[in-house]
Structures
1.
Amino acid sequence: MKFKSRVLFLIGFFLVVIFSTAEDQALKARFLQRKPVIERMKNQEKVGENNVGKLVPRAQLNKNENGIVRAENADRVTVYQEIARKFNISLLKVGQRRALKIAQLARPGHWLQHPDGHWYRK
């Protein structure tokens, strides 16, 4: 298995394993609760996924939407930090690898940031 594929697999596997404690279950519940709103914002082209695995506003957001983006990114960083610690890799590398996976799973029309920094619609 190529290194890049192996790392993506390990990150995906770890995302499943990380949600095993009560605290992790609460984190997972927050992700699931926000998911429909985030998907709606992506479909409306209000947010995109950047090349380090975070949501970025692409249009004017209301106070609630801004709060959702901030909360999502904070929880993502929590997960990324745990993965980085577990696999002894940089937080940046985890975010970049997660961004690649997000891009693979993104729906047509969603905004994504290429690793070189330019934005595109899938």
Note: Residues 63-87 form the longest helix (25 residues).
2.
Amino acid sequence: MTENETIERIKHRMHTVEQVAGENGMEDLEMAIKALEEVQQYRAIGTPEECRAAVEKQKAKRPDGGRDIDGKDYLICPNCCAIVADGEWTAKFCPDCGQKLDWSGEE
């Protein structure tokens, strides 16, 4: 059962609870609905693991040493191994995974 289905079932049964348990019972159900709605908001943002990964990508990392391919030196993303520099262009973020890159100390 999804959160939406649970919320709808609780709302549908709230009129019965009020008659049996009084207003205190209603407050409990309203609190349960609010908690389920908060869970939905957090899921829309992403899982904690996804949020941690996004934060980690914002920490600048130095590209890995050059690879000599066809006489050109390429620098590689430390996260996904994509090419992030080729002597003619340099990316601030990896074009494949979005990892922020640290170019301090580069000539």
Note: The helical segments are 3-45, 48-57.
